[in-house]
Amino acid sequence: MSGAWPLQPLGSVCEINPRTVSGGLATSTEVTFVPMSFVDESEGRIVRRERRTYGEVSKGYVPFRDGDVLFARITPCMQNGKAAIASDLTNGVGFGSTEFHVIRPGPRVLAEWVFALVRQACFRAAAEASFTGTAGQQRVPASFMARVPIPVPPLPEQGRIVKLLDAAEELRRLRTAADHRTADLIPALFHEIFGDPTSNPKRWDVVEMREILDGTPNYAP
């Protein structure tokens, strides 16, 4: 994915885990709340949102805003690919699990470009190699996120590649959906043609398996 593009530490083109999202929010201001379970690892997006007041979540949760990239830092969520671009947040502000790293893209990178990077299997493998902590509670350190190198092509090129990746992802989704429909269709077709084999509604002759599987072909070659 890098080509001849310059490599830059992620922390030099993005802010890692920014501590603020917006100044002057009243405690009664509604914001979006996103626990880890609200991010779908297959689709790479926030699939549910809760509304809470700023006063309820301003302490003890990770802040982010529209356009930030959320990346799960703890096992097994990280290996499973839990990541999403924050969007459509109430009042443009969100808070979520402390097990998210928040990546705020600077002017040189698109959020979609950063998201495509962190969804790569090779990125997650490198992140896993940097784990700290004990078994079952291992996490990707912020120092890894800050120093990991990423390619930084011109913004128009980032946008072009992101569109290609989106098209490929849509094809993958369609293929997965078609496979699921096929898996459901085959049993339905069998039932439509043959009926319930346990009740033999077609009144077909019933024979023992050994009568038809004697090892001798019963058809002409």
Layout of helices and strands, plus pairs?
Layout: E1 7-9, H1 10-13, E2 14-16, E3 30-34, E4 39-40, E5 45-46, E6 50-53, H2 54-57, E7 62-65, E8 69-72, H3 77-80, E9 83-85, E10 93-96, E11 100-105, H4 111-118, H5 121-129, H6 142-147, E12 149-151, H7 155-194, H8 209-212
Parallel strand pairs: 3-10
Antiparallel strand pairs: 1-12, 2-11, 3-6, 4-5, 7-10, 8-9, 8-11
Overall description:
The chain is of the alpha+beta class. The chain has two domains: 7-153, DNA methylase specificity domains (Adenine-n6-DNA-methyltransferase TaqI, Chain A, domain 2), CATH 3.90.220; 154-214. The protein has helices at residues 10-13, 54-57, 77-80, 111-118, 121-129, 142-147, 155-194, 209-212; strands at 7-9, 14-16, 30-34, 39-40, 45-46, 50-53, 62-65, 69-72, 83-85, 93-96, 100-105, 149-151. The protein has a four-stranded antiparallel sheet with strand order 2-11-8-9. The chain has a four-stranded mixed sheet with strand order 6-3-10-7. Strand 4 (39-40) and strand 5 (45-46) form a beta hairpin. The longest helix has 40 residues, at 155-194. It is elongated and about 80 Å long. The protein starts with 6 loop residues before the first strand and ends in a 9-residue tail after the last helix.
